[in-house]
Design goal:
The complex is a heterodimer of chains A (152) and B (118).
Chain A: H1 17-33, E1 49-54, E2 57-63, E3 72-77, E4 80-87, E5 97-101, E6 106-113, E7 124-128, E8 131-137
Antiparallel strand pairs in A: 1-2, 2-8, 3-4, 4-6, 7-8
Chain B: H1 2-8, E1 17-21, E2 26-32, E3 41-46, E4 49-54, E5 63-67, E6 74-79, E7 84-94, E8 97-104
Antiparallel strand pairs in B: 1-2, 2-8, 3-4, 4-6, 7-8
Classes of the chains: A mainly beta (152), B mainly beta (118).
Chain lengths: 152, 118
Amino acid sequence: MDVIRWTNGLPHPFDGFDELQEEINKLFEDATRIPGPRGIFERTFSPAVDVLEVADSYRVICDLPGMDMEDIEISIASNVLTLKGEKKAAQKQESDQFYREETSGGRFQRTLQLPLAVDADKANAVLKNGVLTIQLPKREDVRPRQIAVKAS
Amino acid sequence: MAEKAIRQRTRYIKPRYAVHEAGNGQLIVRVEMPGVGKENLDIRVENNELWVLGRREPEKDEHHLLRERPQGDFLQTFTLDETVDQSKVDATLEKGILKIRLDLKEQVKPRTIQIKSE
């Protein structure tokens, strides 16, 4: 069940290079980004995270396909956000014959340091279509304030 | 769609996937497509190929402090051979994982042959 590129008529001489590049990238990603399950954190994979600064808050977006909210643990301490969880592997039967498996489960942990302290009480998290979005408002006392200068 | 994708030479993200043959004679393909909703999914079978295209809303150019998630649409193709019944394709999308069930034709399902004693 291999993937073969389908081309219409004559193949373009550079067809397949993009794909090859992608495969190589994937290989390196796997080799470098997944630390082995050792040390103080037991983790088997490292999900990709985006951090955005939106007005008075930070938005953290994380790809977590196949996970439920109860599998994910979010903790905030001052300006450090920790995402932890376990992805359950799909149930396998003995009679199943695998051709390819890239979607296995395991534990993960990511710790992110944000530039400013956030208000943990006002944070909210939504999990939709396998994407976790956390909205973290900056703490009132650390937000830069504009001071109006009055002309004397 | 196939031609268009190749002609446009758009860069697509290759999603992670798993393919397995279940004991009941079904071929199950699971494709991880985080961020793709049901309405943005395009699955088709043509020319012995199974095409899976998942579109994602392009992100607004906001101020990113960290950007690791790949941007763009997911595309993956699978070549189907004659053992797959292409008229029966069933797909479900749950929690960002697309599950496609394909039926294998009767004659390729494992059969047990009874040996009769004479």
